[in-house]
Design a protein that fits this description.
heterodimer, A: mainly alpha, 3 strands, B: 147 residues, mainly alpha, 71% helix
Chain lengths: 113, 147
């Protein structure tokens, strides 16, 4: 995982974003990412699981049992406190960028006026 | 023509075998399941175009994530290069005489097909005791137990 002062890789950011809303399995994470990004970001199973593996190793995401009526072939994942901290740090970084660009009148809506 | 879904899953299972062993071992069945669901949904929502998009994405992922791992392992790289060279020399041998491609002519000159046993021995030597396993993950702490 990148050091705290570095931006998160897009796939990591979107997986954490999707899991911030609650525990989910792989395919639901993929669908959630497509919805959250309004179709701007899509990933296939290999990208998804390569990153889930890294997130599990870094303990940003953990595997949980999931609901009782779950499909036994599925595994459920949950964002950990460390993962939430990294996600919130990334959101703050983005918010700060937006704020600065607005202050400098570089924000598209303001730069037109 | 659309590739029938079971055939798509079989092709994906073949591609999956070329991904790093630890990824395959930990997540292989789930990846195959997610791929099948993704493909069914894409076909239902967008038809042939959706299926083509999933396959384009899958091949892109394969080239980006699986191929570098395969080629970094000499157990795969050496036979792959040897096969390429053998194929080139076979093409050269079967090409009508005249003005052959200089590269093909060079390969044919240094590696005639009679050298196949030597190449096979070299491949076996390169592959001895090695497995394809290359995600290059840092040593791991055991994952936390489910809450």
């Amino acid at each position: 995982m990148p050091p705290p002062d570095q931006p998160l890789p897009p796939a990591v950011f979107w997986i954490l974003f999707a899991l911030a809303g609650g525990d989910n399995h792989g395919y639901a994470i993929m669908r959630e990412i497509r919805e959250l990004s309004e179709g701007q970001f899509e990933m296939g199973p290999a990208t998804l699981y390569t990153n889930i593996q890294r997130l599990v190793v870094s303990q940003w995401v953990t595997e949980v049992p999931g609901p009782e009526d779950r499909d036994p072939r599925r595994r459920y994942y949950r964002i950990t406190e460390t993962g939430k901290t990294a996600f919130h740090r990334e959101m703050s970084r983005m918010e700060s960028l937006v704020r600065k660009s607005k202050a400098l009148r570089l924000w598209p809506a303001e730069s037109k006026s | 023509m659309t590739i029938p879904l079971p055939r798509s899953s079989r092709i994906y299972a073949f591609l999956l075998a070329l991904y790093p062993a630890d990824l395959r071992r930990n997540y292989g069945p789930e990846m195959a399941l997610v791929f099948a669901e993704h493909l069914v949904a894409a076909r239902r929502e967008h038809g042939l175009r959706g299926v083509a998009r999933v396959w384009r994405q899958t091949i892109g992922e394969f080239l980006r994530l699986a191929l570098p791992g395969c080629l970094s392992n000499s157990a795969v790289r050496v036979p792959a290069i040897a096969s390429l060279v053998i194929l080139t020399s076979l093409i050269a041998a079967l090409t009508p005489r005249g003005a052959p491609d200089p590269l093909i002519a060079f390969a044919a000159a240094i590696l005639p097909t009679s050298n196949l046993p030597i190449i096979a021995l070299l491949c076996m030597w390169a592959c001895r005791g090695r497995a394809v396993d290359s995600l290059h993950l840092t040593p791991t702490a055991p994952p936390p137990s489910p809450e």
